Amino acid sequence: MIDIRDRVRCKALHDKIVSAEEAAAFIKPGMNIGASGFTPAGYPKAVPLALAERMKKDPFKINLWTGASVGKELDGALAEVGGIHKRMPYQTNTELRNSLNNGQVEYFDLHLSESAQLTRYGFLGGKVDVAIVEACAITEEGHIVPTTSMGNTASFVQSADIVIVEVNTSQPLELEGMHDVYVPLDPPHRQPIPIVKVNDRIGTPYIPCGPDKIKYIVPCDISDDVRPFGPIDDNSQKMSELIIDFFKSEIKAGRLPKNMLPLQSGVGSVANAVITGFVNSDFTDLEVYTEVIQDGMLDLADAGKLKFASGTSFSPSPDGLARLYQNIGEYRTKMMLRPQEIANSPEIARRIGIIAMNTAIEFDIYGHVNSTHVMGTKMMNGIGGSGDFARNAYLTCFFSTSTAKNGAISSIVPMCSHIDHTEHDTDIFVTEMGLADVRGLSPRERARVIINNCAHPDYKPMLLDYLERAEKATKKAHTPHLVDEALSWHARFLETGTMKK
Ligand code: COA
Predict the structure, then answer these.
(1) How far is CA 325 from CA 17, 33, 172, 299, 330, in A?
(2) CA-proximal residue: ligand 1, atom 9 (nearest)
(3) Which positions are annotated as active-site residues?
(4) Residue 271 backbone dihedrals phi, psi, to 5 degrees
(5) What tens digit of pLDDT does each residue of 244-293 get?
(6) Which of 109, 281, 442, 487 has a Cα at 20 to 30 A from 329?
(7) Distance, CA of 418 to CA of 42 (rounded, Å)
(8) Model confidence, pTM
(9) Is 92 in the pocket of ligand 1 (CB under 6 A)?
């Protein structure tokens, strides 16, 4: 067993160091497990792998609550053995995605900022029975120093009966001090969250726990299962250029300060391209208030363009992770991880005026957005934090390529087959075809701007034809629709393999 005693600074806890198998044996069928982790960062690995082995021999299920998606050793391993009954709040694992689209796993998809408080209220079928938490170290007082993510961990530890800590020696001790742990009180006792600047520090650098709650401590040296990013493709590059030009025109018009407002950027290729666009621009003193800190943020810091980045997890590529670890002394002066309840807080997003940039599966001519359901039925990942930011941002931008599946699908449709973000929340749409600024426009005005600026030429005439016929049929109703035809594009795709006529 790896020797972790120097990282467990509370000596009274040394007797609680056990193998992953021994700790996993404590988990009972039907328990609510609150695990650390947000993206493949900072999630427990050894105990879930041991639990999956146990479930293989003696099948049973647990309910799994995390910060967001996690790595293969947790979601993947437990989904493979059919060990999850109910999952919340977000996932990106292929095995798990299949299970929640074939009825094997119940999935509760919700705004990430709300997930901790819903577990504290007990709305999700009881409270956290066991929190399983990855740590860098345990302090002299028995408090937990997290690793590469904060997620919902502090809240899970607070409400759990029992805590199992995985001390991961692959995580550098220099991460200590990069966290700002603050769990709000629940209504009616909640106070304003006292953040007015992205780098305000309001909590402790550790998760308050104490030695008594900790049942077991397990050594682990498996590193975060971070994944490489693909190269920036032409479409993402084009969308990045369009949005950066738009920001420049907003600055010129006096609607944005020279160094912008705090940026929130989703994950994936477009988000990566947009942030890289900033690296190659003449912007300086940029601030980031987001969920996930990825390679682009490290690039911004290296280029001297980053004032500060606040997030809830470090989820770079393998190269980015090596860079983070190598230069952690430098990055720790410019980066901080907070609980997702604070990183995604609607209160903070509104106060500091976030610029939210997220990717959509599809959006419709009136500006509604589907971020989650393919053809209205199959869950892709989940809403994640996109709704926390979209509704509360100063400026809400959504990106999508104008078509999917080699042109067989138009990402701009008459009516979304599922709606995560409504027309009331959205400001800017960007595809590789162009940018639509729909602020202050009525639905009929919005539809023309979205179709003309964002739709692919193959679908533009079909969308305009739909709009004109809907206007005629409804005598220019506020939001014209042909209700028997609105979802016919999706029906056609399911029947024929293309939305084209
Ligand atoms: N209809 C059907 N399928 C579509 C589609 C559409 N309109 N648009 C995209 N797809 C498919 C793609 O073909 C691809 O399928 P494949 O994996 O079988 O090839 C898949 O959806 C992912 O598309 P991709 O273009 O690779 O998108 P992405 O990696 O940029 O992810 C989302 C896009 C919307 C799935 C992703 O951003 C997401 O989960 N968003 C919700 C949560 C969120 O916004 N988080 C951000 C942080 S707050």
Answers:
(1) 26, 29, 7, 14, 10
(2) 361
(3) 291
(4) -60, -45
(5) 999 999 999 999 999 999 999 988 778 888 898 999 899 999 999 999 99
(6) 281
(7) 32
(8) 0.97
(9) no
